[in-house]
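WARN  no MSA supplied for this record, continuing single-sequence
INFO  ligand: glutamine
INFO  echoing inputs
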Amino acid sequence: MKKITSILSLVLIAVLAMSLFTGCGDKKKVIVMGTNAEFEPFEYMQGGKVVGFDVEIAKKVAEKLGAELIIENMQFASLITSLETKKIDFIAAGMTNNEERAKQVNFSMDYFTASQVIIVNKESDSVNSKADLEGKKIGVQLGTTGETEAKSVEGAEVKSYDTGYAAVLDLANGKIDAVVIDQEPAEKFVSKNDKIQILDEELTKEAYAIAVNKEDEELLATINEVIKEIQENGEYDKIYEQFFGKEEKEEE
Ligand code: GLN
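INFO  complex generated
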């Protein structure tokens, strides 16, 4: 009996010590980024890890907060709901800052100027300009501004895919007439598939920003601070060069 009591008290001491240990601020803060790693060079898979331009910016935010960065990879169309339900702390996903979304989330300052472009199959003559999109089959990624843009085209049949890659595959196989998608990922797709090309005419001008939950004013302020800081101290340019391999483009 005596032995049992002493074992019990040992266990008790151990449990107490453990709870003290974890209670004593040894828990590292985490910050969760939500993204869709199908958007090279902003976020894509490499060696089983999510990497990219947006990931580098998110790392700076985590650094500033002294937090560990966790990345949740999900459907692009699920990101805003995940933010609203606090499954994630912020969205960094080449997400275009627009009024419609700003009803649901708060956007940081813009950190990248982007545009929607048209990708076509080189062997087909059906689409040579924006005007030619009328009445055509257009592939887009579900829930994107590319989808909104394509749906505004008169008589177009819009096919929404889970990924831009799937849309591009159907284009290369002649199943659709065009893909409307952001310029930088479009360039990546084209560089890996010689059956397709990008038309010169841009469809939109837009800007990417980081989205945070409407209630999270403090995080929003920190993210803005970080974006400003890295733009001023040259770290933004370094990240740019890392993923675009050239100096930041001048406006054409
Ligand atoms: N910029 C586009 C949007 O915000 C596409 C983003 C993406 O597919 N990751 O809808």
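The longest helix spans residues 2-26.
INFO  checksum written, moving to next record
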